[in-house]
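$ ./design --mode recover --in tokens.txt
reading tokens...
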């Protein structure tokens, strides 16, 4: 049997009963997430709720304390060496500071992963890079130095670089942070369009309710050390859960904690400094 349209859909990324943390500090417990090919999914939650930690776990940078993380049907935590490298090659990651190489021009920045990971001939590199630059509206900026482009353009170049190997999963860490309202709308539409065009899956970590709700298929909301809610933007908009409401309505008062919780490590540090927590 060949995998055709009727084949059961395989999750590109799946968290099953995942607990994440650092040493004795547990950040999130018992998380279940599923992302399918073609979907754009948002992971939302207050500051310090563990969104970036989830992204690190998805790429195998940290290992879950409990549960399983699968990418493309493979256990990410068990992948080592070459297998992990191959797995990561199927993922594009766009960090908040998607730093570009300042000594390379726009074209060479986007070409970099192709030169590192493929043996593509120069004509093929030219075709692929211009295609991705075209997708982010910067084909004609290929020759510019990084110092000659704006901050918003630099983000789009970083995006073109993140997708140049045509990943099956793209992870975005706060893609809308610090963008003006117009650039924000463009960035959101770009993520949707690229996901559809590459037929990949996209996961975005974001605080931006309005912009992400307009493009995503599904939202996962984390807080209070767990998965608080998940559903379509419409389902979450209709939720009467107090945490979900506080987040969506941007209300200052509610269950989202302002204070970072006291840990044993803090108490030890405090008493070493002669104070009482
Ligand atoms: N390398 C680390 N070692 C120890 N603790 C960490 C580490 N990285 C993050 N943490 C802690 O884990 C918790 C979750 O951090 P994380 O960066 O995942 O939050 P976030 O939801 O992405 O926050 P923000 O929206 O503010 O970026 C925080 O309490 C943070 O202090």
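writing sequence...
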């Amino acid at each position: 049997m060949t995998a055709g349209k009727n084949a059961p859909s395989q999750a590109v990324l799946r968290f099953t009963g995942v607990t994440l943390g650092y040493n004795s500090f547990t950040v999130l417990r018992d998380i279940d997430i599923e992302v399918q090919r073609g979907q754009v999914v948002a992971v939302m939650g207050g500051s310090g709720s563990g969104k970036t930690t989830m992204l690190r776990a998805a790429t195998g940078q940290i290992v879950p304390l409990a549960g399983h993380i699968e990418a493309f049907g493979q256990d990410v935590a068990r992948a080592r060496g070459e297998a992990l490298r191959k797995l990561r090659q199927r993922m594009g990651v766009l960090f908040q500071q998607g730093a570009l190489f300042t000594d390379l021009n726009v074209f060479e920045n986007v070409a970099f992963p192709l030169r590192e990971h493929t043996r593509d001939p120069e004509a093929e590199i030219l075709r692929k890079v211009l295609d991705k630059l075209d997708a982010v509206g910067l084909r004609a900026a290929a020759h510019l130095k990084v110092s000659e482009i704006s901050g918003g353009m630099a983000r789009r170049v970083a995006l073109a670089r993140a997708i140049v190997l045509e990943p099956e999963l793209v992870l975005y860490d706060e893609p809308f942070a610090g963008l003006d309202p117009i650039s924000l709308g463009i960035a959101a539409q770009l993520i949707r369009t690229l996901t559809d065009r590459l037929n990949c899956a996209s996961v975005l970590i974001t605080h931006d309710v309005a912009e992400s709700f307009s493009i995503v298929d599904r939202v996962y909301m984390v807080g209070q050390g767990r998965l608080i809610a998940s559903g379509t933007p419409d389902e979450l908009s209709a939720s009467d859960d107090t945490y979900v409401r506080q987040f969506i309505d941007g209300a200052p008062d509610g269950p989202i904690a302002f204070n970072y919780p006291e840990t044993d490590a803090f108490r030890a540090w405090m008493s070493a400094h002669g104070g009482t927590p």
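exit 0
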